[in-house]
Amino acid sequence: MTRSWSRTSRVIAGTATALAVLTACGGSGDDTANKPSGPVTITFWGWAKGSKDVVDAFNASHTDIQVKFEEIPSGTAGGYAKISNAVKAGNAPDLVSIEYSSLPEFVSSGALQDIGGEFTEADRAKLLPQTVELTTLGGKSWAVPFDAAPQAFFYRKDLFAKYKVQVPTTWDEFRKAAEQVKKADAKARIGTFFPDDPTTFEAMAWQAGAQWFKAENDTWKIDTTDAATTKVTDYWQGLLDAGLVHKNASFSPEWTGSLKNGTTIGYLGASWGAGVLKGTLPEQNGKWAVAPMPSWDGKPASGMLGGTSFAVTKDSKQKAAAVTFAEWMSTTEDGVKARIASGTSSAFPAAAALRPVAKKAFDARYYGGQDIYALFEAAGASISPNWAWGPTTGTTNTTIKDNFGKITQGGPGIADAVKAGHDATVAELTKRGLKVEG
Amino acid sequence: MKARTRAATILLTPFFLLFTAVMVVPIGYAVWLSLFTEKQSGLGFGGTETVFTGLDNYTAALGDRAFREGFGVLLGYCLLYIPLLLAGALGLALLLDSALARARRFFQLALFLPHAVPGIIAALIWVYLYTPQLSPVVQAMEAGGIGFDFFSPEGALPSVVNIALWEWLGYNMVIFYAALQAIDRSVLEAATVDGAGAWRIAFSVKIPLVKASLAMVGLFTIIGSLQLFTEPLILNKGTGSAVTSTWTPNMYAYTAAFDRNDYGLAAAASVLLALTAALLSFAVTRLTGRRKAGTARKPAPARKPVTARKERTA
């Protein structure tokens, strides 16, 4: 793209320079550890809605620990790259936000430290077991779960009524509803397939009972050709082929534009989506409602889409303080209240005792006063406990995303993308010297 | 002699210091990194162990279809982009060269302006213009009966080429225009007297005389293309387009480091890309060097009196 000499010579250094400089400029981590008195200062990186408010509330109520919050881009949008670089460079913050899907990758690259000593059995018992499961890897505890993110179906109740469409409870009904929506308005669709976001698709496979990553006797079993995954793949391919859903990038201007003008009237998301919709489309106040995710047999079932945990980086000398703050965010009334009251977060706390607090703090007028937390509660309980994430989610998800982008009418489809993700995962695990089957 | 050595040392030291700090050391570090890999055991949750692997990362990169395909994409990009760029920039320069003086200045500025926009901003603007439900361009095209999906597998390459053209056409046009302006007006007058029309002058006189600039721009563009990164990365992130995360070799290295945490592989891919660039740069230097020597010979007699006069006054 360039041709001047100075730039040409820069090619020679190219990315190599970038990598080298980034990794070479590491500092010595925390020097606050050496100070004998005064409050302990820890640094926290995150992007979840309301984080700033939580940190402010914590600092106001604590004198022994002070938190410095730095907002980073969301994980896959560059946040994870930033974290792993900082860890590699030795100047990482003490506490970082990591989604459940990426936690094993960070653990396996040695970026985090075991917090089992500070985050005890008793603390863990307060939290949704599925989230504890996802943060316990190789018998050690690696992160404090913050929210569970059960799936949910958001829809425009005014338009559903106008088009005389019933809210679907099964995937069969969902397809019928999709057909009705398209019939009622040729431009409108019931939902969206996100080609840039494999995690939404994975949550659907999770919901159907798939188990892509299984750890057995020190061996990773990768299985994406099971009946559940095949069912989900065929179903979504069918929706795409029949043109029953839009195909837009998630949270892209295109997607929000279509929500704004009413050509997308539903959103298959997760609990935190309630806050996102409210923040993105304030003018549609009162027009939205939430329903449980459609399921295959009509019984409640859910995967988990996203969901954040807090982990302590390997060089942090303030493990105890960092865990204290993380637990405050996850398991205390004040912590949860501060986040939800910011108005932008609809997080569903992993701590069961705090859900009434969250419910009270969340202004549900946007959803016509609907008790959305009761709905999340039921959905959270129905999260399948069988799913685990492997240590190569970066590779798996990037590959699937790349191949989702290639999906065309009559060309490669979702099944090809899943296959490519499978093969890349197996190759990556093998390259790292791990035993793999699949 | 001694004073001259001292002056040379003083003048060259900053260059070599910077050269060492920002070129030699990082390259050395990248080469060093590329010889190691991180191995794990069990399920992979017991931490990592850095192992010397020799050239394994290089064979892994070369053995990866995605990496090789990246070079294929670059080749396709050059084949589509360079002819369009050269023809477009030269055509515009010829038009300007024969236009009215006032229009000239306006168009020169107008055509050059996109180049002042940083690549990342240009890519963001174009992503907007490519997005079906938002873009007035796509809507106009559809209204005119041309449906084209810029994010489809077929659309990926043209989409990126289009952004590059938008950024670089004006810049190269200025180079060609300057070369055209340097043509001795008497040659053009002679051609007119001989009865040549505007077309004939353009093709038989002007273009042959700016051939050297054409070759230079072409070769530099090929080398610059190796760095293709920003624009496709923007298309890759957040559009769901067919531009993959390993679309160009540069992107491959980026993804290896930041998505896959494989710094050894990223370093190896970067070193391979750097080697390719070095080879190409060497070839370009040789080729343009020869060309410059060739063109310098011809006008030499005309220059002689000038230098002679200068020497006399000095």
Detailed description of the structure:
The complex is a heterodimer of chains A (438) and B (314). Chain A is α/β, with parallel strands linked by helices. Chain A is built from 18 helices and 17 strands. Chain A has a five-stranded mixed sheet, with helices on both faces. The radius of gyration of chain A is 22 Å and the shape is globular. Residues 1-36 of chain A have low confidence and may be disordered. Chain B is mostly helical and 314 residues long. Chain B has one domain (65-294): MetI-like (MetI-like fold, Orthogonal Bundle). A two-stranded antiparallel ribbon of chain B has the order 1-2. In chain B, helix 3 runs antiparallel to helix 10 (211-225) and helix 4 (101-116) crosses helix 7. The longest helix of chain B is centred in the last third of the chain and has 35 residues, at 263-297. In chain B, 33% of the residues are buried. At the A-B interface, helix 1, helix 3, helix 4, helix 11 and helix 17 of A face helix 1, strand 1, helix 7, helix 10 and helix 11 of B.
List the defining traits of the structure above.
heterodimer; A: 438 residues; alpha/beta; D-Maltodextrin-Binding Protein, domain 2; three-stranded antiparallel sheet; 18 helices; 43% helix; 15% strand; disordered N terminus; B: 314 residues; mainly alpha; two-stranded antiparallel sheet; 2 strands; disordered C terminus
